[in-house]
Design brief:
By secondary structure, the chain is α+β, with helices and mostly antiparallel strands. It has 17 helices and 27 strands. The strands form 7 sheets. A 6-stranded antiparallel β-sheet has the order 15-14-13-18-17-16, with helices on both faces. Strands 2-1-7-6-5 form a 5-stranded antiparallel β-sheet. The radius of gyration is 54 Å and the shape is rod-shaped.
Amino acid sequence: MTSHADTHFPLENKTDPAAVISDGKIIHCNDLFLQLINCPQSDVIGYELKTFLAVFVEDDGERASSPLTLDEAPSSQVVFLKPRQHLPTCVEVNLKKATHDGHTYLIAVFTHLSPKDFHSQREEIDAFNIAARLWHMSIWDHDHIKNNINISPIMREIYGVDTEDAFTFEQAGQFIHPDDVNMEAVLKAHDPAGDGVFDMGFRIIRPSGEIRWVHSRSQTFFGEEDGQRRPVRTSGAIVDFTDEYRLRLALQEQRQKLADILNSLPSMLMVVDKQGHITQWNGVAETVTGILASDIQHQKLEVACPMVHSEMERIHDAIQQQIPLILTRVSYVHNDDTFFYNVCVTPLQNSLQSEVVVRIDDVSEQVRIEQMLVQSEKLLSVGGLAAGMAHEINNPLAAIIQNVQVIISRLNPELRSNREAAHKNSIEMDNLRGYLTDRKILKMVDSIGEAGTRAASIVNNMLGFVRVSNNKKVDCNIPGLIDTTLDLAINDYDLKKKYDFRKIQITRVYESRDVHVFCDAGKIQQVLLNLIRNAGQALFDAGTAAPKISINVEKGTEFTRIEFEDNGPGIPAEVARRIFEPFFTTKPPGEGTGLGLSISYSIITKEHFGKMHVEEGKEGGARFVIELPNEMPQNPQSDSAEPMDGRS
């Protein structure tokens, strides 16, 4: 094995004093080092390097030299050497590791520093700190050759370390939050092939445990050594933006909360500038128009919201003049449907851009409900009038029927009082009966009685139909209720169209005459009459040669099924999908309100918890199907209800 003494180290080419150290002892040195310490080689080789270090001295109350540590290499340190028969001299020691013949050594290169040079370093550090204090900056400077770092007092405040604590580049990295450590960015900044720029935000954890948000930006400068580009110095600054970050988070939370509130409102909300361009709008507006908020910037209000196009002149005037505006029930026709909207224009207070908030509410359903209520009130008024008229008609009908019965009674030859009166007036009862029979007077009297009785029955049925419902469910016989409704329908005659229901063939198919369900008989009769009349009108309008209506009643396990089928033209699919919508009608203006089937559907589904739909009939016509539950989900108080057979 080769000894240290036999090992040749190329130190003679060094322009500075140099020595080779192994296990803390000098094993080789060049002549410049011997001259520096003024000792022969025999007094140097084999001795520990600390033998030649001077005692530490104090300078202005501060330690001017640090103990030389040989376990940190590469490194750069300032120490004092003690030359023989000379005063201690200040040197800068640069330690590097070297491998020779399989052994690792330390090569120490000594650079002589004059007192002036030493103090200039001190002054450079002081100037750095003074500049940092004057500009109140958090700056730092890392010397890669000397492996020391200067940091400003402000940076120490940011990191929460005392001014007396040592602070190295490696320690600075230990303050970074574990989730934010990005060694790839650090290595890239020190890569000789890169630009040396590091620019990143991250969190640091102070010794107290407090988390701060900082942004660091630095620049690494490179130099040439042994023909290779190496990092020499890195300088940078750190900005603590914790307060700003927390404020930004709070603003974002408030902005998000406000956005959530606006998006949760059922109205279309948008901000419009003075030129009529939309700058913002909420989620409801996105849903209604199909235009995303990110795509709405600077679109015209009338283009994005065609539903208010008819009132754009007034809206633009309000925007230009910055005055409030409220518009109600603005109509908009789309796909043959009419929709209604309320529009509210409100100027934004203290807006530099003179912006306004436009709120648009779809009130179509509200308008339809109001129209239904108005129609319902009209129907109630008509019903009340009809009921009053029916009572007034009942009185003369009763007199007619009664007098007809009296006439028939007084023409009866078997009554003694009739015979006595005839004998008194020289009239034979048999001859009188023969005359009345020959002239068909008795038959006429019978016809008058039958007509009066029939009229009274019709009036009674009408009274039952228009009677105000108390929403009370009773046990009702469905076949009987249908028969009563047909009696009403048969007497329906349209003078304008010469429409006669009696010309339609009615077929009734009842599974049993004893089919009962709990229902509001008056309202169910209203539904039945509406379906029968609609079928009759459809048959008449289509000019069906042999009009027929088939009514089928079948009691199932859970529901009683009632079918109304005609042999008319049928209902197109696009109409069938909307036939139960309020105010939807295929009749010409003035001939239909579009409420009959809508109200019927509501009575069956909402008030009686049943089902109602339309489908194609067997002969190409329409078949309306009603299913009423055999047992009501809500207690109809059937124990106290009186049974009804469907007849009034």
